[in-house]
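[Meeting: bench + compute handoff]

Bench side (C.D.) handed over the final construct sequence. Compute side (W.E.) agreed to return the predicted structure before the next meeting so the bench team could plan truncations. Sequence as handed over:
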Amino acid sequence: MTGLAAVGMLEAAAAADVPAVPHTVKARHEYRGMRTAEHFFEVPLDHFNGGTGETVTVFAREYVSADHSEEAAADLPWLLYLQGGPGGRGNRFPSLGGWSKAAARDFRILMLDQRGTGLSAPIDRNTLPLRGNDADQLEYLTHFRADSIVADAEAIRHALGSGPWTIYGQSYGGFCALTYLSFAPEGLREALITGGLGPLAGPADRVYQATYRRVAARNAEYFKSYPEDRAAVSRIARHLRDTEEHLPDGQRLTVERFQMVGSFLGGNTRVDTLHHLLEDAFVATPDGDRLSDSFLEQVRGIVTRAGNPLYALMHESIYGQGEATDWAALRVLQDFPEFRPDAAEPLLTGEMVYPWYFEQDAALRPLRNVARLLAEKADWKPLYDPERLAANTVPVAAAVYSEDIYVDRDLSLETASAVRGLQVWETAEFHHDGIADDGEGIFGRLLGMVRSVRS
């Protein structure tokens, strides 16, 4: 299928009358100042074949502030939150706070478990083999990208009887928002995006050229703040080359897996948590210094993808625009030898996905063959329509973080310039997880920006 044909098919699906999908509410609860409702929808697996055939269950939880009566809440407009990922389930709020507290003043929040996550047809090493052989699994996974997530959202919007609604996309959720603006803008009142203006065109290599540079700079900034941690990281790497250490689940901790703790570098406050992790890495034992159980247990939760295997499987495919990604992060690594695990003083990595994930992580090992097929797939459908975005009429505001190590600032501004009317708030005050630091302030600012367009 050519790219133009794929775009035409997506536009036709978005423009057609969205068929009604079965919708049930299975439970309602009220606690800590909010009311929740658990929504389940039966949507087509393949929205682009006429919406016929197999269906999958998609789950979303509604959050409403108890400050609104039930009658008043029924009249509130909807806000759909699109979580980061790919492979991240919707947030489970113990109470409203941060951006959700701000949003709940004016909206009913719908927290979507994007397909493949949470309660929405979850994908992992146990469920995916139900699809059949590797080729069958590959075909199934092609229905778990942003185009299908957006089609789910439109089907859900119609099932709820909502008019055009507000969407809020964080990180990968922002990528999905751009797909929404491309193929179903009639479903949107306004769009808010934080740390999620992905590139509109490939290849994936340029994403990693940019992010390796950003992560290297963030390593340098971190080690300037905590110079003792440069020696600590190097010592741990040397130790892991010479001594077998095993995580509490029995899996070996390698240098390359340890480097994944660099995920902390993408945050404001989490970067200090990295220092606290490293400071008590070693303990004295009868066999000499070894990594402590406390350290190993903390690292285990960071270096496994057991909780979000779809992230590892689909991550590079979000940059696939008609060409194979072919393990782009690994190929680009050759240009950044300071990140190699055998470097004398290896740097910590970001969110790059490498083939060895699928050998060293027991949760991913059964998925290694389909991961290879995904990397080799060269006929991905386009996820964006540049012409539609250039003619956009939906108010859009996006926070771009100047030093974001996950979604590069320069690529973000390139995308922003290609979307008509998109307003950018660039700030160096926050990193990628800015909404965890001041979600209420960031949400309020972006909402004010899109509402100023309407006033």
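W.E. noted at the follow-up: The longest strand covers residues 34-44. C.D. will use this when planning the next construct.
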